[in-house]
Write a structure and sequence with these properties.
391 residues, alpha+beta, six-stranded antiparallel β-sheet, six-stranded mixed β-sheet, 11 helices, 31% helix, globular
C-alpha cells in the first residue's frame, strides 16, 4: 500500500486526528474551528463511498491527490499541494536556470498569464495577459501549480520551449515555440504631449528604486513636468522592492503593511530622506499589474500621491512558504498578505480599483495592435488635470 493510500485509510478512520496532525504540521492550533469536525466526517464519507462503490475500482492515490489539490486551491491561486518531485525541486540548492520566456503565471483552471515582460520571447510571440497555457512542452497544466509552471518556463539560454496557448476560444488553441533568453529589466522613457513623459517600469529588478531615482532626476533636468508611470503587465519582482521604490514619492505616511494570521502587522513608513521625487505622476495599471508593481501602486494611490488609470490590478500580493507533509509531499501555502495602506483589507485576491477605468484591448492572434494607445492617452489627460490641482 502506498503512503497516500495509507493516508486515505487514516483519514477515513480518524478524521479529527488527521486535522490535529495537519494543524501541528502548519504550526497552528490543534483546536478545530467550528464545523471542521463535520466537514471532515463528510470528507471521510465521500472518500469511503468513492473507494467502495464507484462503478469501477479507483486509483486511491489519484483520488487522494485530487482531494488535496482541491483543498489547496480552495485557499488561493498561489497555494498548492506538491508532489515529492516538486518538493525536491523547491528545496534543491541548485540555482534556477538563468533564462526564461518572460511570463508570470497564476493558477486559474489552467495556468493563466498575468504579466508579460517587454522585449521577452513571450512578448515577441504575442502572448498577452489573460492568455491560458494549456500545455508546457507537452505537459498538461490542468493540475499543475503556478510554482511548478514557473520552473518549467525557465531553462538554459537559447533552449526551446513549446506552449499551447488559449485566448478566447478553447477549441482554437495555438502552439507557440519560444526560445528562452536571459531577462532584461529596467526602465524606459519616452516623451508625451504637454511636456510630460511616459516612464515604463519593465520589471522591478532588485535595484529598481535606484534606477527610478536616476530616471526622474534625468527627466527633471529635461524640464519634464509630469509623468505617466506605466505598470501594465508588470508582474515580477520582490514585493519589498516595490515598497522601496514607492518611498521615492512619499515624504511621510504608511508605505505598506504586511500581515499573517498569527503574526503582528509589519508596517513600512516613509521618513527623512524619502520623497525625493516631487513631480506629478499618474499610474497606468492593468489586470497584469501584480506583486511589486501592485504594492507600489497601492502605496502611491493610498497616500493620494497618484491616481490609478486603467483596469483593476491582478490581486497578487502575498508570500508563500513550503510546509513539509508526510511521505515527502508538501503544501505551498500563503502565510503573509500585503494590505492597503489604511489597513482596511488585503490587496491579495482583491486587487486595486482604478480611479479612472479604461479597458485594455484584447488583440487576436491574427490582428494588428491598435494604431493609438487609448489607455495612455487617458492617463495623460488625467495627469494634466492632476498637475493643475497640484497633486
Amino acid at each position: 500500500m502506498s503512503s497516500k493510500s495509507r493516508w486515505a485509510v487514516f483519514l477515513i478512520s480518524t478524521p479529527l486526528v488527521a486535522l490535529v496532525a495537519i494543524g501541528g504540521l502548519l504550526g497552528a492550533s490543534t483546536e478545530p474551528p467550528q464545523r471542521n469536525d463535520q466537514n471532515l466526517v463528510v470528507f471521510r464519507d465521500v472518500l469511503g463511498l468513492v473507494i467502495q462503490n464507484y462503478v469501477e475500482p479507483v486509483d486511491v492515490d489519484r483520488v487522494f491527490e485530487g482531494a488535496m489539490r482541491g483543498l489547496a486551491e480552495g485557499m488561493d491561486s498561489a497555494s498548492a499541494y506538491l508532489t515529492p518531485d516538486e518538493v525536491r525541486a523547491i528545496e534543491s540548492t541548485t540555482p534556477m536556470p538563468a533564462a526564461d520566456v518572460g511570463l508570470v503565471v497564476t493558477r486559474q483552471f489552467y495556468l493563466r498569464v498575468v504579466g508579460v515582460r517587454d522585449g521577452s520571447p513571450a512578448a515577441k510571440a504575442g502572448i498577452q495577459t489573460g492568455d491560458y497555457l494549456r500545455m508546457i512542452d507537452g505537459k498538461p497544466t490542468r493540475d499543475m501549480s503556478a510554482v511548478t509552471g514557473t520552473r518549467l518556463l525557465r531553462g538554459a539560454p537559447g533552449s526551446k520551449l513549446a506552449v499551447t496557448v488559449i485566448r478566447g476560444n478553447p477549441a482554437d488553441p495555438h502552439q507557440i515555440e519560444l526560445v528562452r533568453a536571459v531577462p532584461t529589466g529596467g526602465i524606459t522613457t519616452n516623451t508625451l504631449p504637454g511636456g510630460f513623459a511616459r516612464v515604463r517600469i519593465v520589471s522591478f529588478v532588485p535595484d529598481a528604486a535606484t534606477l527610478l531615482k536616476s530616471t526622474f532626476d534625468q527627466l527633471a533636468k529635461q524640464k519634464v513636468t509630469g509623468a505617466v508611470i506605466d505598470l501594465r503587465g508588470t508582474a515580477d519582482g520582490d514585493l519589498e522592492t516595490g515598497l522601496a521604490a514607492a518611498k521615492l514619492f512619499l515624504k511621510s505616511g504608511t508605505v505598506g503593511i504586511r500581515a499573517g494570521r498569527k503574526t503582528e502587522k509589519v508596517t513600512t513608513t516613509a521618513g527623512p530622506g524619502d520623497g525625493a521625487v516631487t513631480m506629478p505622476v499618474v499610474l497606468l495599471v492593468s489586470n497584469g499589474t501584480a506583486n511589486a508593481a501592485e504594492v507600489f501602486a497601492a502605496a502611491l494611490s493610498g497616500n493620494d500621491r497618484a491616481e490609478l488609470v486603467g483596469e483593476p490590478t491582478a490581486g497578487i500580493a502575498a508570500r508563500q512558504r513550503l510546509v513539509r507533509l508526510p511521505g515527502n509531499y508538501g503544501l505551498w501555502m500563503t502565510y503573509e498578505r500585503y494590505l492597503t495602506v489604511d489597513g482596511a483589507g488585503p490587496i491579495h485576491e482583491r486587487g486595486l480599483r482604478p480611479t479612472v477605468g479604461v479597458e485594455m484591448p484584447v488583440i487576436g492572434f491574427d490582428e494588428l495592435p491598435p494604431a493609438s494607445d487609448a489607455p495612455l492617452t487617458k492617463a495623460t489627460e488625467v495627469l494634466k488635470k492632476a498637475k493643475g490641482t497640484g497633486l
